[in-house]
Amino acid sequence: MDLLLLEKALIGLFIAMVLAIAISKLRGKRFKLPPGPLPVPIFGNWLQVGDDLNHRNLTELANKFGDIFMLRMGQRSLVVVSSPELAKEVLHTQGVEFGSRTRNVVFDIFTGKGQDMVFTVYGEHWRKMRRIMTVPFFTNKVVQQYRQGWEDEAASVVEDVKKNPESATTGVVLRQRLQLMMYNNMYRIMFDRRFESEDDPLFLKLRALNGERSRLAQSFDYNYGDFIPILRPFLRGYLKTCKEVKETRLKLFKDYFVDERKKLANTKKTTNEGLKCAIDHMLDAQQKGEINEDNLLYIVENINVAAIETTLWSIEWGIAELVNHPEIQRKLRNELDTVLGPGVQITEPDAIKLPYLQAVIKETLRLRMAIPLLVPHMNLHNAKLGGYDIPAESKILVNAWWLANNPANWKNPEEFRPERFLEEESKVEANGNDFRYLPFGVGRRSCPGIILALPILAITIGRLVQNFELLPPPGHSKLDTTEKGGQFSLHILKHSTIVAKPRVF
Ligand code: HEM
């Protein structure tokens, strides 16, 4: 069977090679493509540039080929944009043309071929999904409905860390407890649910399935089948695993959360609008026929991948930078003590009175941008960008990390210095008011979760710094902040052990 496949693949490769040469000759005549390394038939630039196209490797290529360059990854075109002007063109001026998302065989499985919102193409379906998600998730009313819940979750993190005798001596991996907190913050909004402890079996199952989903979708292991479609039959085993994970995961969302909520709604009908959680709004939309049950489950899937880890990575980076910069940590603690009073716990409305805390968060999101290349964009049709022709269905990466870390645009960008956002960059906000700084993107496909992420970051980082002195573990003067870049993400390679010494007020 495998021999037959191999034979088919070799014939296919030959045909693809002849076609690729013919097409590239034709294209060369008609199109003015962006610069880039010279592609070879079939593989394009894949063998030259490798799999790991993280923000730093792409920055190196931009330094060589310019602010817009193109790579051919097998049959796929990848265009990388690395200047604020071109980012504005992609995200704002030509936001419709470049407002779609790329798809591939693996994402097609996890999103039911674009029945979701995050990974779907720009159009009627996306608009409807984004509209339906706005009221339950992305308004200030939601922040006000849940902020006390987030404050309680942060308080319970503080309590648990204090209870653990290791916290103040050898240290603990704070991330683990913060992960439970982030699940609780989001599951409260979605389902009015929370998990009691890190050992809760349902939480463990959910976390494992979400982890597996991210690993499978972000892996480079399926590139060959994506870049060279003729090799796709060899992906059968991989795709089978993806399908199993997807089905088990959606079934878990349905059986344990959606159906549970339906049952509850049937037994005690809630008339108070204020008590509705997101799933109630979405079930209303389903009842009105605006979405079907699959769409609803894919919304739950999207929130699980878009909201929890991104915010957690940012918290983790923020804490690591504060441990490694004790003078900044002290200055932040001092602001909290002075503005709120020692021991008075920060709440969501306080954030506006705490400019240094906001600057620390902005600086974390600048230097350690959680999604450094944004979520890949795509043009459905042939387009023009920076004077070049962009073939239809190209993957467009905006190197947002480089925009925010390019020494041509920022003073000593490699330094963690929150003061820059109170001094020379005081007008720059995280909402995309400056195309050099786009931690949440900007425009049509920008992150709607910014309205939740910023207060959650402020409450969590604020409470930890108020209540603890955060230090590296004994025998270390600094935490290891080596980065790990995935296809979408920039996170810390090793989850740090941190000593958290409780403060006495
Ligand atoms: C610090 C935390 C977060 C960061 C840094 C972040 C960043 C981003 C970025 C860069 C994008 C892509 C923008 C683009 O492609 O142009 C995005 C998209 C998205 N984010 Fe976030 N995000 C965060 C938290 C959240 C939260 C808490 C939620 C939901 C509750 C959320 C929901 C989404 C959704 C639904 C999209 C897709 C929007 C679309 O395609 O139309 N994010 N986010």
Automatic annotation (TrEMBL):
Cited function: Catalyzes the first oxidative step of the phenylpropanoid pathway in higher plants by transforming trans-cinnamate into p-coumarate. The compounds formed by this pathway are essential components for lignification, pollination, and defense against ultraviolet light, predators and pathogens.
GO MF annotation, one: iron ion binding
Gene3D superfamilies given in the database record: Cytochrome P450
SUPFAM superfamilies in the cross-refs: Cytochrome P450 (SSF48264)
Gene it is expressed from: LOC111484465
Presence of the UniProt keyword Transmembrane helix in the record: yes
Transmembrane segments: 6-23
GO biological process, one term: lignin metabolic process
Provenance organism: Cucurbita maxima (Pumpkin)
Binding positions for heme per the UniProt entry: C447
Protein name: Trans-cinnamate 4-monooxygenase
Cofactor dependence: heme
Key words of the record: Heme, Iron, Membrane, Metal-binding, Monooxygenase, Oxidoreductase, Transmembrane, Transmembrane helix
